[in-house]
Design a protein that fits this description.
The chain has helices at about 15-30, 50-60, 80-100, 115-120, 125-145; strands at about 5-10, 40-45, 65-75, 105-110. The chain has about 150 residues and is an alpha/beta fold. It has a four-stranded parallel sheet, sandwiched between helices. α3 links the parallel β3 and β4. The structure holds 5-nitro-6-ribityl-amino-2,4(1H,3H)-pyrimidinedione.
């Protein structure tokens, strides 16, 4: 019965779209209705990882979701402001989670290059699957302890 919100960055969507498909596959195999008409899952696309916190905050405030998953990919080789984007995304997501009491999974890959990102998005292992499992665990745990 968990309701899951996914906030996903379009920047590096070659990678983030793969994370999303791993995520959806895992949620579906664990009984979440992932069809178009589902009321158990919503997906919001944002321009980049920097925008993940503000949209997560809006979704968290709706009170509709048991857990949020943020998906992004920040690749060091591509940008001199890697550290800024990663720091703002991670600090922002952590503070939204604490302030709203909603578990938010940090599914932002931070890699040195595209090859490492591809390996984590499906070539070797799809971390989107792991983020979905962590979301199911945290969504259930927070329901149980609150
Ligand atoms: N956003 C990402 O999600 N990944 C990146 O690697 C990245 N790079 O390379 O700069 C990136 N930048 C965009 C940023 O997240 C914002 O969308 C943009 O600055 C507008 O606020």
């Amino acid at each position: 019965s968990l309701k899951v919100g996914i906030v996903i960055a379009r920047f590096n969507d070659l990678i983030t779209a793969k994370l999303l498909s791993g995520c959806i596959d895992c949620l579906s195999r664990h009984g979440i209705d992932v069809t178009e008409s589902s009321n158990q899952i919503d997906i919001a696309w944002v321009p980049g990882a920097f925008e993940l916190p503000i949209v997560s905050q809006e979704l968290a405030r709706k009170g509709k979701y048991d857990v949020l998953i943020t998906l992004g990919a920040v690749i060091r080789g591509d940008t001199p402001h890697f550290d800024v984007v990663v720091a703002e995304a991670s600090k922002g997501i952590a503070s939204v989670s604490r302030e709203t009491g909603l578990p938010i999974i940090f599914g932002v890959l931070t890699t040195d290059n595209m090859q490492q990102a591809l390996e984590r998005a499906g070539i070797k292992n799809n971390l989107g699957w792991s983020y979905a499992l962590q979301a199911l665990e945290m969504g259930s745990l927070m329901k149980a302890v609150s």
